[in-house]
Structures
1.
Amino acid sequence: MELLEGIKSRRAIRKFKKQEVPKETIERIFEDSRWAPVVAAFRGWDFVIVRGEMRDRLADLLTQNTVILRDLFAMMDPDSEKKALEYYKNLGDAPTLMFVTIPELPEEQRWEYSFQILTATTEFMQIWLLAHREGLGACGITVPPYIGRQIQEELGLGGREVIYGLSLGYPDEEPIAKPHPRVNATYIGY
């Protein structure tokens, strides 16, 4: 898959087939994602991949997002809000969940937090594109701190902060792309 084609054809998938994702497929994704452009000094993030009974327990926790994200849903168009509410009932039946964690930092190191998030997010986006290359669908999972702490406890991730999630599986839908407005850019000295 050519890079620009992959970027433009990737969609947030909110409905998945009940087919497990082989560990080998996930390993191929990680093998290539390690080439993401990151700040090497801040390579403190980890990924946790979950399926089975633990996936179901975490999906139950994440259904709380519909209450926590109520204000965000209010900003969406009615169709997007409906899709989001439906998705969060069981994360679209995705068989696999992936979470990004970073080190919990003492107050005097909180400046490092933004670097940890930036570098983790860079690799995370590559994982999303590489999953698309493998024929997988994915959808981002918002993990507010309150729910992140519960996930941390369930997974025994002492000392790690859960910052984001991804549902992963074989797509059972083909969403049509919505228009993507260009970001604003300010040019100085051009």
Note: The longest strand covers residues 160-169.
2.
Amino acid sequence: MLEGIDRLVKVIQKEGVFRSSEITGVQKERVKEAARRLPLNFYLHHKSLNISQGKVYFLIEQEKEKKLVSCVCGKVNHDEFIADETINIDGFSLKICPLTHENAMVIREVFSYTAPTVLGTEPAFGTGDRIGGEASATPGHIRAVRDYDVTAFFAQQSVRENARTKRTFHNVLDDVTWGVFQEGYKGRWGADADHLMDLASMGLAVDAGFTMFTVDPSHCINDAAPDMGRKELEREWAKLFRTRKEADNFLDKYLSLKEELVSGNYKLLIRYNEEQIMRIAVQYLRAIRFTIDAYAGIAQHKCDSDFDFEMSVDETSIATSALTHYLIARELNDAEVKLTSLAPRFDAGFEKGTDIRGNDGKKPLPADLRKFEDSVKSHALIARKMGPYKLSVHSGSDKFTAYPLISKYTEGMFHLKTAGTSYLEAVKVIAQHDSSL
């Protein structure tokens, strides 16, 4: 029983909301202040107030359960939301609707800002919300970013995280949709299906409505390649190609290459010898081919509509060299893969939820920081010249030493994934304020 809902509707009517083409912030604040004085047994999320085709929509919360209210002046409400309850009071028809997947699909149609969009090369933070449901962290993420000139991937989840939290891509996106509606956030935001390792998972993410796809081909990477002896290297190299001519053509393609990438006073020479080409190919060529196939599969599944696409090679034990990055980018370009971002493994210790470390796991020495700076500088330059696409930083939480360097050398073309700390902070808030969740 929603006590006082009739009075709340009268307040909304008095503030001229039903006559508005767009509800102003002033109107929302007035409704909020008036609602505080009413004997309500539910909480009004006033920022959610919005209007479409004469119907007013808002979120309420009662006993930790949130519901959507659809309100129209008249006896019958004909919108497409599925209601638990319909109420007719004083010339208004109200539908009280659960926050289901079906209703999330409808609200994304009614209010386009509640649906994710393709963000391209805009600077972005991937916050992610690994909990969702009653303990959704999305409203907090929105409040953290809304006053800054960045975009966010409020929906960011991997298949592995979905399995551990017993969620689906549909759950993840729907929870964010309701969080965006609750906060009345009208900025652009994205949905990143992270660490995708098979075509079936990619299809599930496409079907759920995700707009970014981060392919993780780590299962195709051969990290033994850098330490292989010559004979073993030649055997593994030969396995990559159907014919000797195909292998020779690949070698010639990069042996004949000499390119100098320049940014200001910084110059990066791209030049390969035979052994470098063979080792990079043995380590990464299968991963590159998997990524090309993944891109084609996603594009076909999306009927060639636009999407953000990332290749991640950070899930390896070996730092990504500039020559490796260039070869990967060149192969993807030649296959007409449109990269939005690429995540290398940086030459530094990147652990979740802590600042960067030296490769020995300890606090980085000045020499470690110089090495890391050179790594960021070269990767950012390659990303600009070969794309441009963004440099993606995984395990990006709390990397306060790294942030200034990433911002400086990428010139704002970065994607920082920070779901780890977002998750820890969400758990901390729950433990302190509502451990029953």
Note: Residues 104 and 174 are 6 Å apart (CA to CA).
3.
Amino acid sequence: MAYGQTQPPPDQTIYVRISPLSGSGISIRNFPHQVQVLPSEDLTKNGVANATQALSQRVAGVNLVNSQANPYQPTVLYHGFELSPIQGTPAGLSVYVNGARFNTPFGDLAIWSLLPNEAIHSLSLEDGNPVFGLNALGGAINVVMKNGFNSSGGQVELSGGSFDKLDANLEYGKQAGNVAAYVDLNETHEAGWRDAQSSDIQNFYGDIGWRGARAELHLNATLANSDLNGPGSVPVQLLAADPAAQFTGPNSIADKYAKFSATMDDQLTGDTSLQAV
């Protein structure tokens, strides 16, 4: 052995979720297909947390299509499979939030404006995992939300930008013994650079959890309201006169969302756990 030779750094074990719930893990080396994981820090690389933008910039194989002309309702493309917020596109990806399916029952749509981005703890994209059901042909996006155990403390964020863009967010988490609580409130407004291209979004997420020696229970609520306007196509002659002009409008999509759920994880033995949602 040559003098001065340094030892290689020890191998690092990375764990990913193997089910729609967040209680169990397995080494990524033993996973039978590709898994790409993003912590909450990756969602805020460009400022305000944005799940779809983070997927596009930091996950291989993901692209966004803004054919709806609104930045808050993109179509996600992954290896030829689509996930759209608009009816008429066959869905090839599933989205799960804390173990519960996020796609709409009719059309399998993913309405991204209803997802509280600032309250996301981590998200992963997994290729064709049968755990997520037969509708996850191209893969599944598994979203794990924050709670008082993994996100303590509070912060208030205000940001703004061009075209009357304003984003306000309040989040707070606290643990007291075996009990913890977390809450997130968000308000987003943007006028857009084209006529009748405004976006108004309100999100609320709350979680109350209890953790014992072997079991953990969470009750959470998600409330959201969004009103998005996306201008359509414009004749070339009108664009020459005014690039921001609107020809057919308003093209408004309004959504309201309310979800209440409970998750439970019981570690029966050292290598066996029972999970439910």
Note: The first strand starts at residue 15 and ends at 16.
4.
Amino acid sequence: MTTARTIRLTTFGAPEVMQLIDVDLPAPGPGQAQVRHTAIGFNFIDIYQRAGKYPRPLPMGLGHEAAGVVTALGEGVQGLAVGDHVVTMNAGLGAYADARNVAADKLVPTPAGISDEAAAATFFKAMTAQYLVQKTHAIQPGEAVLVHAAAGGVGQILSAWARALGATVVGTAGSPAKCAVAVQAGCHVAIDYTQPDWVAQVQAALGPAKARVVYDSVGAHTIDGSLDCAAPFGLVVVYGAASGPAPAIDPELLNKKGCLFLTRPSVFPHNADVATLRANAAE
């Protein structure tokens, strides 16, 4: 038995509700690995859960993404060894800790040459981009796509990946400086969505065919424009709500906008078993 420092919530709210406490950390049980965290990742879902937008029973831990070193293995664990560097993003809440026990099948070995800091900063975001461009919609060469928040962590990876797959990528961001970051990341052009005519600018950049798929992580501020920028029979993917939740949408509106498809996916169901998780991570 050892101890670990961890963040614990007993109420929802602003960052001040986070409490740093010491907890007992037993030896890992069957199928578990004990990991000493050397870096943790911060993601929007952490903010949503801390604030109570995605409420969980209290008290609860916080954080999904962390990287570190395996320090002990429980019975039956295969494919990992003490001393291995690993990263995780779907082992359940509690990544805001200096050590914890997690299901070994939620761990992905960190490739040689990638630091723990880089792994923790990018893994969740890259896995999100992976399912968006390969699972939610398999991007094809020549397609036009619209990426909102293209200067963000997911947005930059998503834009670069979509362009590498041969798409024409139009991005949006919240300032001219962020638009420059989006272009550097991979967008062919980026539009400042704080401008009142941003929808018209995006439509002009896309051309009359509009976007085969729209990736929207902004939500309330952009969802109406997303529907207006999607091609007939196009797909609007709402995978976040940085500006607040998107309002309820009447299905008849999707018909009027061009028989559109609308989905709200998540990274976790796309990585539900160890084989799929590690295959997606390898990609």
Note: Helices lie at 44-51, 116-136, 153-164, 176-185, 198-206, 223-229, 251-256, 274-282.
